[in-house]
Structure formats: C-alpha cells, structure tokens
Design a protein that fits this description.
By secondary structure, the chain is α+β, with helices and mostly antiparallel strands. The protein has ten helices and ten strands. The protein is about 55% helix and about 15% strand. Helix 5 packs antiparallel against helix 6, helix 6 runs antiparallel to helix 10 and helix 8 runs antiparallel to helix 10.
Length: about 300
C-alpha cells in the first residue's frame, strides 16, 4: 500500500499508519513504536507486548509425546493461559506403551518450561497460567546463555573422554535439557514481543531451532561411546571445543571471526572422515551434522547484516 508523506513544522516528515493494522494491534495516541532502519526501508513494530488468547486443548486419546508437542507449542507461541481437558486419567508412553497418569505427564512438561505453572486441576481438567511475565529485554542475556551452555557441553564431553568419567556424560544430558528450556523461553519472548522486526524474528527463530539441534548432537553422542584411546582421535574433541568457541565469537563478531570459524569447521569434518575405526567414525558423524548446523545458524546471522 502507498502512503503520502506529510510535512509538519517545516522539517518533520510524517506517514500515517494503516487504520486496520492500528486497530488490530490496539495502537492508541501516545503509544511508543519501535522503528528499525535499513538501507532502503523502515520496519515499524508495536513496542508493547503481544497478547495470546486463552488456548483450550483437548488431549483425549493423545500419548505422552503428542501432549508434549501440543503443550510446548502453545507455550512457545506465547499463550498466557492454557486449559487442558481429557476423557481418561491415563495416557500411554509413546516408546514403552506403559500407562501413565495424564496429570503427571502434564506436570513434568510444565516443570521444563520457564514462567508457567499448573494453577488448578480437577478430575479431567488442568489450568496452566503464566506466573511471571515475559520481558523482551531478557532475550539477549538468555540467548547468549545458550551459547555459553554449548561451550560447557563441549568441555564436559572432552573431559569425559580424557578421564573416562561416565558421571560427566550425565552432566551433558542435564545441560542439554537446560538448553532446550532456554530455547523455548527465547521463542516465547519472540512471539510475545512486538519489538522485533519480522526479519529479525524469523532469523532468531531459525537460529534458536539450530541451537537446540546442536545441543542434541552432544546428547546423541554421549550415549554408548566407543572406547577412545588414540591421541589423534582425542584431539578431535579439543577441536570440537575450539570450533564451538569460534562459533560463539563469530556470531557476535561476524566480520572478524567467520573466516576462522569456517576453516576450523572444514578441518574438523576432514579429521572425522579420516578416522580408521569405522564404528567411531560413524559415531562421530553426528559432529559433521553439528558443524553444518552451526554454519546454517551463521548463514542466518549474515542475513541480518545485509
């Protein structure tokens, strides 16, 4: 749509907002707007938080996996209130086929999500509400925390291999779950806030999904690790730590670090492919995917610089 530019007081240029959009977003006189400049345009977003209607979810006939998908999707979308109904107090574990109490499944899922709680429940009913409001200014610190936890995963894995310490592998699983929790929380902030331009929203959402998969690579590798004796093979884990650090630095200092990160990524992939032990090479193949995921995230980051 086209808008005429109006000049006020000799210097100020003004463009009117589309009335339909303003009504939809509840924009009123005196409200603040976020205006983001680019080379050829402006992006205008409401500064106030978005609201999500109450979400009613009937999970009758769902197994525990499907309940997780629906409930976490509603959370990530930004819903403040989720009403859950069901016609059976038991559900089925998707893998073992064992029967589980529905309320226990819901409670375990909610425990892994930041800022919401089960506040009321009846015979075949649960009500989940937001207990601490999302603040958009929290996004950057939580987003950076995810990178720091990825660095921690690499350090734990390297130490577990060098010290042959299975307890450290359990720490990897715990940290990976914590990363998932923070990824979902960041996605909730993105969906509840109008402070992000549509491009930044898309880029950040994509990067968060990649970060979750990157953490999953550690969790997949940490189960049933073959014995690793060779110095050359153990060196790979030091290189993985280094590439994770470079990924973190390149994400925040793109122009200075991305070339170094890209070279290290190719080097690590080559080292993995050159391993003679077939079982170990196949197991370490998850880190080729790991490196590709990091490159995809960097590619998305570059889009914000264009």
């Amino acid at each position: 749509m086209k808008r005429k530019v109006i000049q006020l007081a000799g210097k100020t240029l003004v463009v009117s907002l589309p009335a339909k959009w303003a009504r939809k977003c509840g924009v009123k006189k005196g409200d603040e707007m976020e205006v983001e400049e680019s080379e050829t345009g402006l992006s205008i977003n409401c500064a106030s938080s978005a609201t999500c209607e109450k979400y009613v979810l009937d999970i009758s006939g769902f197994n525990d996996s499907l309940i997780w998908y629906y409930l976490t999707s509603a959370y990530r979308r930004g819903c403040d209130e989720i009403e859950i109904t069901f016609d059976n107090n038991l559900t089925e574990n998707a893998r073992t086929r064992k029967k589980l109490p529905v309320k226990n499944v819901i409670s375990n899922i909610v425990d892994g999500l930041v800022g919401i709680e089960v506040v009321r429940h009846g015979k075949q009913y649960c009500l989940i509400k937001e207990i601490s409001s999302v603040k958009e200014e929290e996004f950057e610190s939580v987003f950076r925390k995810i990178f720091l936890l990825l660095l921690s995963l690499g350090e734990e894995l390297s130490a577990a291999i060098n010290e042959n310490d299975p307890e450290r592998l359990e720490n990897i699983k715990y940290t990976e779950k914590n990363i998932n929790k923070l990824v979902f929380f960041c996605e909730r902030i993105l969906n509840k806030s109008r402070a992000f331009s549509s491009r930044k929203h898309q880029v950040y959402f994509f990067v968060l999904e990649e970060l979750e998969e990157i953490a999953d690579c550690f969790a997949k590798f940490s189960g049933d690790i073959p014995e690793i004796k060779g110095i050359k093979e153990k060196k790979i884990f030091e290189e993985i730590n280094e590439i994770t650090r470079l990924f973190y630095e390149a994400f925040y200092e793109t122009e200075k670090k991305i070339s170094e990160f890209h070279k290290k990524r190719l080097k690590v992939n080559s080292m993995i492919r050159d391993i003679k032990d077939i079982k170990l090479r196949e197991k370490l193949g998850v880190f080729i995917k790991y490196n590709d995921l990091m490159m995809s995230a960097m590619h998305a980051k570059l889009m914000t610089l264009l």
